[in-house]
Amino acid sequence: MSLLPKTVNPDLQKERDNASIKAEEFAVWWHGGKDRLKIKRDLELHILDDLDEDIYRFPNLSHEEIYNAAIKDFIKLAKKIQELKVERNYDGTDIWPSSVLWGAMPAGNPLAVHCGMVIECIRIQGTDEQFEKFGKACQSFSMTSAYAQTELGHGTFIRGLETRADFDHHTDEFVLNTPTISSYKWWPGGMGQSANHCIVPANLYIDNVCKGLAMFVVPIRDMETHAPLPGVDVGDIGKRMGFAGVNNGYLGLKNVRIPRTNMLMRHSQVHRDGTFVQSPVSVLTYFTMVYIRCLIVRNVATQLSMAATIATRYSAVRRQSPINPNEPEVQIIDHLTQQKKLFPEMANSIAYKLAFTKLYQLYETTSQDIKHGEFSRLPEMHSLSCILKVLCTSTTMAGVDILRLACGGHGYLSSSNIGNIYLDVGASCTYEGENTVLLLQVGRFLMKSYRSALAGKKLAPTVAYLQNAVKEKSLCHWTGSWEDLLKILQIATAHKTHITYENLMARLKAGQTEAEAANNTGIELTQAAELHGICFVAATFLEEVTGPHSKPRSPALNKVLGNLLELFMISTVLKYMHEVLRVHKLSEAEIRSLQTRLEDSLKAVRPDAVVICDGFDHHDRNLFSTLGSYDGNVYERIFEEAKRCPLNKQPVPEVIHTHLKPFMKSNL
Amino acid sequence: MSLLPKTVNPDLQKERDNASIKAEEFAVWWHGGKDRLKIKRDLELHILDDLDEDIYRFPNLSHEEIYNAAIKDFIKLAKKIQELKVERNYDGTDIWPSSVLWGAMPAGNPLAVHCGMVIECIRIQGTDEQFEKFGKACQSFSMTSAYAQTELGHGTFIRGLETRADFDHHTDEFVLNTPTISSYKWWPGGMGQSANHCIVPANLYIDNVCKGLAMFVVPIRDMETHAPLPGVDVGDIGKRMGFAGVNNGYLGLKNVRIPRTNMLMRHSQVHRDGTFVQSPVSVLTYFTMVYIRCLIVRNVATQLSMAATIATRYSAVRRQSPINPNEPEVQIIDHLTQQKKLFPEMANSIAYKLAFTKLYQLYETTSQDIKHGEFSRLPEMHSLSCILKVLCTSTTMAGVDILRLACGGHGYLSSSNIGNIYLDVGASCTYEGENTVLLLQVGRFLMKSYRSALAGKKLAPTVAYLQNAVKEKSLCHWTGSWEDLLKILQIATAHKTHITYENLMARLKAGQTEAEAANNTGIELTQAAELHGICFVAATFLEEVTGPHSKPRSPALNKVLGNLLELFMISTVLKYMHEVLRVHKLSEAEIRSLQTRLEDSLKAVRPDAVVICDGFDHHDRNLFSTLGSYDGNVYERIFEEAKRCPLNKQPVPEVIHTHLKPFMKSNL
């Protein structure tokens, strides 16, 4: 018998009744229009509403049991998606909000890389015939695959990969080897037990001469029995912090032979006689990474909004510590220090979602440019996708942690799901470009841009402010407006870029190589990059709120967005105050007024906090949280979840009889 | 057949050969002398060296299997400890370094609270007869117990606890009830299935009049069958983020009757006729919390040193990305940005360990004072234990995360153990006083101290600097010495305290109640508290390095400690630069010289980084990490651990045959 009330917790209802806007209006804005919101909800209805409960118990399961559940779950999901595609004529990835898929596979998807990346990789890197053969087999799942790039001893530095493919003139084959333990392929999602093929990037050798990296389609398991093929050593790498069901694998290859035609040959080729034709365009591979980083920004910003929803709803339901003694305990959302934990993360998730939208527009423009052979904006696009990936993942990781702590002890329950979100996001700081490595790349891009600025050249649009800001070393007149707040951040960024450049030059002058000087200037390079990214995010948020907007908005919604922007701008300037004060000597009164504005903006967001989160429109299955459900029946859900714990199946577990009781009676 | 070499990784050996000090000298200093180090190693030898392997596989196990393993593991450990106590005549808790116990029970200990807290609680809160009855039974384990304070709906605010104990005049019993779902006891470690008794803090009612909180010894499971007793609803609360084997439980009580003599009556009593005698000393309960917070500081600082050891050794072994192109990939510890991740956390763990030592001296002094009826230093002691608990746990949580990310993808493997350390530390920010709640308490203590300073009264020694710093609003002459760096932090703290006080007063003046004003000044109160704590930590570190020291040190060790202090002081001042610049307008050249000093101090620590970590002297079993073992055979260990993954037991898992293959053949 369920203890769950059918009603909404009255404290939460009160929040909804008293807000200045309706959640629906926010939801329409957040999801980019009524149509898109409708499609999202329709998908959720069909995919999430009648899924099995099994996978939702995954925190209690063993590593092996989670994998079993994830495979079964994936098959159900794939069938549903196939039905929907046929029935509704849906197509494309954009229409599938990733949050729907998370909700359907909370422990992760062992075939996510297969579906999301390998098929696309074969399409882009393979010839049309290759796509016909391998790509189609992937689409129908007769072939399941992984993308096996990273090695046990090699990650970031691709040229260092040890796996080699030697061309055998006699048999017209490649012979693949992972000659050392450190060259074992390590980490690829789904490679452990789920894939029967891998895309293997390896160094191509012809007559023992290295021709650089190429990609090979390598069968690893028998198409009938699924047993590993001769020369193949494959398995699961063992438990990770998160992504429990993803089946990350290892792969050793010993003289594994594949036909020459299994090398993906759209851009570079090996002919029958061993002639190697170099790819004319390296830029395309590079551009796929840009695309993936865009998606990471969107996904991770969404995950932050999920955590914010869970913590905010819980904070409206949870009552703790009276503010005035002898009065009842208040909703914890009324403690100012609690608001300081919740609302800035809400604003951050909005800021990064908006930055994603802007980034994605730029991506689409650049894609068009590339089709027309125009590559000039590519460095800018690349560095922007890098810095936003870094900032969004690191901000979210820190933010989810703050939000977890904001839920006190109950945030630590697996059933709160904030921990699970944290573990997912925690991986995103490392994959698809380790954050520090990316920051250094962006730092180097800033150095180049700055050098161009000094030479009087025109800068790319998103770094143009460096030029203006260099001229205007400080703000002439501080009014504290949003525009001023942005400008002061830009001036601080220009200043940081300037001194980083000076230090780099000084090191070169002192005789260091370019690489040594860059390493020794590394800390400042990463700081400049971070500031640069922040300026983009702040500018985008400011533009969304104050610029012209395509769809009409009620004054009430405008006000709410303004409150969030105010909170974001003030928080950001306070966070970087140590940089700001180096370029503009704000008076003590001005600094104190920023603190007051921070406090006031928290209070301004307070009445709408719950409906803003409602407006993120996360399905309960997606939140998968005892603390964050729409109805706010928190304690009842925690209680029911505890009752389901496998340890409670019997009044006294077996180990008590076999071990604990005899020990207790032994009179130690 | 093990792949593990019997030799030390040559990169790690080189680090040890080329360091400026021997690890042993650092270890003797760190552990407080040769004798203490010897005892620690002796314990490790006996406790850790021949433990079973089972529990080390816990990340692969289900929630239930982990519990079973933890129970078996605990029994073995308890027997060993008992043997050692008899054999070596060891006694006291201080001699048992907690790290030895972590190493022995990596998934957590379901009877940790029983051993570490309940017995002590009965000794302090119970009469001598009660200790004879209950305490002794606990010591021999015929009685196993949990401490059941927190409720599902009530944590921080103790007076809000709903559990009640009504005195029944007729039967001379107490009748215990948890009348609502929110009053269920929730979270106590070991309460799920392991304990047959609980210490239950509940509101005491006599003739329906509340007399305040008292503690009751409540049997919850049958002493013979271990089945829950009538009226008792008890079980495990379900999976948590960490502490997998701790068996946190829930407890509902419905008209559970216990003899009147089961109330712990050393300080307050209920007589047979229902007369209630109030405790004359509330201070003692309070003082136990102080003690526990001291231990948390020590434990968590130790955990940070564990994570630093793992990440630093890995960074010496891992090679990635050449610094100069066409040269081999370098040890990642040679990247400046990597040093920036590793070494400050090393310095932090040392800083907090030293702060603990100082705090513990103060604790012992205060304990003596209390025995002589002298309570004047108690508020200071209390607030110091609070702020160090907060700073150490939050610094460590952030630091462990940085260190995990510093290990790239492999840091995300469960077998790296950094994730497990993170999850443990992540709980410490909440338990034994939620960090924000504690910060607010310390903030209020600062307000009181500041008021006293304004009134010309003498301040407690650890806040005395507020008085001096108030007078000296800015540094007259900046030399950049360590003493200057500390002084500037103190002046910034005094300034923050001053403006917080002003804002609080302004709100009171505007008609807010004291509680409302405190809530509205909450953010600044927490900031002032944080700064205050940092000043204590910095002053302690400075004193250790530059002050007189009891035991002789080699000049080389002094130099190493000086390097670490320099790094700590510079990092700290840079972190709080936004506050520093408000009280002292450092010139741009002065700020840039701090940045240079940061970079130089990283380089100065570099050659000794590995031996410093060796000097923390963590047993391999304690680190429990494929990345951090003493011999540095990282890849071989990761490889062996992967091979042990249960999913790899058979070449093709069952679920492939039953589910995945049929799906792959279905031609979706």
TrEMBL record, chains A, B:
UniProt entry tagged with the keyword Protein transport: no
Signal sequence range: none
Domain Acyl-coenzyme A oxidase N-terminal per the UniProt entry, residue ranges: 24-143
Alphabetical keyword list: FAD, Fatty acid metabolism, Flavoprotein, Lipid metabolism, Oxidoreductase, Peroxisome
First-listed, main subcellular location of the protein, grouped into a coarse class: other
Active site: 432
Domain of life: Eukaryota
Domain Acyl-CoA oxidase C-terminal, residue spans: 482-665
One Gene Ontology cellular component annotation held by this UniProt entry: peroxisome
Location of this chain's protein in the cell: Peroxisome
Gene Ontology annotations of biological process type: fatty acid beta-oxidation using acyl-CoA oxidase; lipid homeostasis
Acyl-CoA oxidase C-alpha1 domain ranges (all copies): 286-447
Cytoplasm listed as a keyword: no
Molecular function in Gene Ontology: acyl-CoA oxidase activity; FAD binding; fatty acid binding
Sequence similarity: Belongs to the acyl-CoA oxidase family.
The protein's name: Acyl-coenzyme A oxidase
Organism: Stomoxys calcitrans (Stable fly)
Phylogenetic placement of the source organism: Eukaryota, Metazoa, Ecdysozoa, Arthropoda, Hexapoda
